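Bench notes, afternoon.
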Amino acid sequence: MNEKKQVPNGEKNPHVILLYGQSKIGLSSIAAQFPTPLFLNINDDLEQIKTRSLKVGSWEEFLEHALEISKGKYAQQTIIVSHVDGLWDLAQDFVVEAFNKQNGANVKALADASYSIWKEAVRLFESKLVKLAGLCNLVLLAHEIVENRNFNGIERSIVQANLERYVQAKVTNMADAIGRVLLTESGARLVTFQPAPHQITGSRLSELLQKQYVIETGKRPEFIDDLENIQQQAKKIA
């Protein structure tokens, strides 16, 4: 996790943002409003969005595109992983297939393998995301799930990104802010942000975290402007 970020084109202080919400709520159309976006399209339908995208059907394809991006082929300012839960699935498939080839095994899923194999998948997944985060702004899109948990005998429903708990911890620890996109009773879309677990009081994103943002169709979301302003201020200080 301590890899030094190599940020192209003089871009400093890149952000990692996790956005999650229900299927078909418009995560991709919101993310497409970020500066000069490039989608890594894993399991999304981007036909209705006029944006640059690279289709990713396997972990090997993801690595190929990540290498091209690192060499400056696309001159993007924002990398969008759509969706990060799909990328985790590709990482699992890759590790399981490699394990089977090396050991003559017939493991069907990561859940059936040993803990060390699962740990290797998590390490691989996390390390590649960290490298992407070092290149420019990184936006991770995820579907949401509702999980019931017991807190001191009280059952509560938790809405979160669709990632198993330990993997989700890795992703949220990378993020500067975590935003949930939801529909109000009136049909309007809202983005509400919460701090990532590692954030402390006085975070550079504290202003962002104190707001709710209404998303208007066809208009650039205000929170993206706020993020750019924060980056500009950071550049002046630097």
